[in-house]
Amino acid sequence: MIETKGGFLVSQIKQIQGRIFGRLLVNAGIEEFNGAQGRILYVLWQEDDLPIVELGRRTGLAKTTLTGMLDRMEQQGHIIRESDPADRRQIRIRLTDHARVLEKRYEQVSEEMSILFYRGFSDEEIRKLEAGLEKILENLKTEERALRN
What we know:
Layout: H1 6-27, H2 35-46, E1 50-51, H3 52-59, H4 63-75, E2 79-84, E3 87-95, H5 97-101, H6 103-117, H7 123-148
Antiparallel strand pairs: 1-3, 2-3
């Protein structure tokens, strides 16, 4: 196998992207939540009223991390936790009206981030990069499932 540094590069990208995204949020006047909380909100903006387990799956956040973040987001007035009427053991997460108002500004910041990410890339290069990243993600998810069993 050739010498690789993909994991190291992805780690660096994640760190730098987080700092830039945080600054873009502040510049857009969004100080109500941080980038990691934005990932949760983004998923809920796509589909609201999700069980915690599904929210964790879609965000890739561990249950312990997600629980702490949801505690803070509930205190900040972004989400509401409710028992599922069909299964009282299951908790569902819903957006508040306050959080829904932030969606448009967040989308603008996300668009700025995408422009930074793909500056100088052709559409074909973007497709190939994202296909490769999706393949890596699936490999890692498969391994994670195997380690749990």
